[in-house]
Amino acid sequence: MVSHGSSPSLLEALSSDFLACKICLEQLQAPKTLPCLHTYCQDCLGQLADGSHIRCPECRETVPVPPEGVAAFKTNFFVNGLLDLVKARACGDLRAGKPACALCPLVGGTSAGGPATARCLDCADDLCQACADGHRCTRQTHTHRVVDLVGYRAGWYDEEARERQAAQCPQHPGEALRFLCQPCSQLLCRECRLDPHLDHPCLPLAEAVRARRPGLEELLAGVDSNLVELEAARRMEKEALARLREQAARVGTQVEEAAEGVLRALLAQKQEVLRQLRAHVEAAEEAARERLAELEGREQVARAAAAFARRVLSLGREAEILSLEGAIAQRLRQLQDCPWAPGPAPCLLPQLELHPGLLDKNCHLLQLSFEEQQPQKDGGKDGAGTQGGEESQSRREDAPKMERQGGVQPQARDGAQTPKEEKAQTTREDGVQTLEEDRAQIPHEDGGPQPHRGGRPNKKKKFKGRLKSISREPSPALGPNLDGSGLLPRPIFSCSFPTRMPGDKRSPRITGLCPFGPREILVADEQNRALKCFSLNGDYKGTVPVPEGCSPCSVAALQSAVAFSAGARLYLISPDGEVQWRRALSLSQASHAVAALPSGDRVAVSVAGHVEVYNMEGSLATRFIPGGKASRGLRALVFLTTSPQGHFVGSDWQQNSVVICDGLGQVVGEYKGPGLHGCQPGSVSVDKKGYIFLTLREVNKVVILDPKGSLLGDFLTAYHGLEKPRVTTMVDGRYLVVSLSNGTIHVFRVRSPDS
């Protein structure tokens, strides 16, 4: 944690914007300090005053204007002293671009004075060399500190000049403030002390500062303690928000798993429950953002006041400290008395509940309930584990009730999953992982937050809704040693954007994707006969011209060219659209998948059950049949960079499998298990570690296979916004780009297990 007690230096105060007015953004003129310890020009405050009140531009606090006007606000002698030091650096009277001596005109020299080469820190005068030598030789000034003018202007003597600086009495020009009248708390010069403070007890400034400094330091320490509490409260707010988001993600997964074992007609309820879940999280996030903004505002106000007080105590002269002591003490007491939030507000975590009557089409099979979360004051892992244990205990107590009601409970990801039955019976899982940065609170039904009234912290509110989706098979068991252990890549949503452009005459039909330059993709829009370029943020970069009449299907980017298939032809064109060569392909195949080899100088295309590889000149470099089976038809090819020889991965619609083969056609891996859910395998992509991402359009999923072709589990589902995914590609080995049937593109960052 960063310490709040570090004292600022004089150089920081002079070089920062501390001496600038936050209203006019110029150097402070006649600085006046408001009760909130913010300082502005007197004229600026006069323009800002609204009748009898002024609203501080920084902390937005409203303060009353004294009856005498803004001039009656306390003068900031501390800032005045720093301003005098800054102004002394600037050139005063100049002659031929050089500062002039201040004593020469007084001793009968030229009216303008000779060129100054030194400065007296006690007299605050610039001196020529002759006057400087004489200054050191007189009885009255021989103790004065005379320094080199160049070094003074460079700031070498700021600290020493600050020590010799004296605050001047505003009523008696030329007289320094030397005393503090204790009954009046007023700074006095020698003239002021004679009348009307002659009979009042007075203290020298140094003695008065020694007496009053401990009280200010004690108040400052109290505000520092409050700042620590504010930081802890903000951190707890974010951690609780992260638990909410993580639990919401878990519930979304539970909704998916529960829905997989239910009849096709009843799964129409799922969409509505997910909508309620998203609405709950969004509403909770909005409430959390408001609380965070309030906490940050309070913290900013307290931090600004503490910084000002610390500057005054560290850098102020005795007169300056005492002149501001009352305002600082009042402000610090006010901040200490301000109520600080002890921790985050109770949070309602969503929980999934399944109801009986699964065969009744009018029954709502899925429900959401929201548990009131106890704030974790320690904010650490121990607190998370304790809460997880309490929630797990409450679920175990609720489990028999759910079984008696005939409800279906979602299964925890602990390895094997029960086969598909008429009623998929599962168990709950709970856990806390702080992976997000948001937190939310759902209001009670009467409009206010629902307080925790003691007892078990799982008071629930139930919401029912219909799900709108198609039926899908349950997910098979995860691979060994990978289930639920955090060893699988995980998706992190990056952005989503449409691909329809103003010039398009039809809705996009994306049939091909490929990386194209740094953090960019090339999109084959078959419906609009275009190759569109987008950044991963969704910025439209233009198009790569294609020959007239061509409808690009699959596309791949090479070193200095673009290859794409259209109809029964393979094209290689330059980035400006010039056709370098074209090759005729088999007419027996409706579409031909294209993939670039990692060298960037060859392109592979699937043709009637075999793979053909062409070089940049259009010559056939190699041709092979995967596994020697001529009936294979590869729909999508992605080069696997984890193999030294280079592997091809393709979707085999003939065998309904995913096949992995080397450059000679030898099959090194194949998957045709239940993880395909009886669907035809779709587009495939491979990340930098060799994981294979397979698209299953019919069930709105992208699943993961290991480099050898073994199924590891789901990567993306409908919960991630997948609605009929069509084509995918991997950019930079860590961004999975997914196109949907409606022309929308989703971008996910693939977080590796060891990140």
Question: How would you describe this structure to a colleague?
Answer:
The protein is elongated. Among the domains are: 10-90, Zinc/RING finger domain, C3HC4 (zinc finger) (Herpes Virus-1, 2-Layer Sandwich), CATH 3.30.40; 229-335, no CATH class; 508-751, TolB, C-terminal domain (Neuraminidase, 6 Propeller), CATH 2.120.10.30. Helices cover 26% and strands 25% of the residues. The chain has eleven helices and 40 strands. The protein is of the alpha+beta class and 755 residues long. Helix 8 packs antiparallel against helix 9 and helix 9 (270-315) runs antiparallel to helix 10 (318-337).
Brief sketch in words of this structure:
The protein is α+β, with helices and mostly antiparallel strands. It is built from eleven helices and 40 strands. Among the domains are: 10-90, Zinc/RING finger domain, C3HC4 (zinc finger) (Herpes Virus-1), CATH 3.30.40.10; 229-335, no CATH class; 508-751, TolB, C-terminal domain (Neuraminidase).
What's the layout of helices and strands?
Elements: H1 10-15, E1 31-33, E2 39-41, H2 42-48, E3 53-55, E4 62-64, E5 74-75, H3 77-89, E6 94-95, E7 98-99, E8 118-120, E9 125-127, H4 129-135, E10 146-148, H5 149-153, H6 158-164, E11 179-181, E12 186-188, H7 190-194, E13 202-204, H8 205-260, H9 270-315, H10 318-337, E14 347-354, E15 366-373, H11 381-405, E16 462-464, E17 490-498, E18 510-515, E19 520-525, E20 530-535, E21 540-544, E22 555-557, E23 562-566, E24 569-573, E25 579-584, E26 594-596, E27 602-607, E28 610-615, E29 620-624, E30 634-640, E31 647-652, E32 657-662, E33 667-671, E34 684-686, E35 692-696, E36 701-705, E37 711-716, E38 725-731, E39 735-740, E40 744-751
Antiparallel strand pairs: 1-2, 1-5, 3-4, 6-7, 8-9, 8-10, 11-12, 11-13, 14-15, 15-16, 17-40, 18-19, 19-20, 20-21, 22-23, 23-24, 24-25, 26-27, 27-28, 28-29, 30-31, 31-32, 32-33, 34-35, 35-36, 36-37, 38-39, 39-40
Helix pairs in contact: 8-9, 8-10, 9-10
Organism: Colobus angolensis palliatus (Peters' Angolan colobus)
Protein name: E3 ubiquitin-protein ligase TRIM56
Coiled coil: 227-305
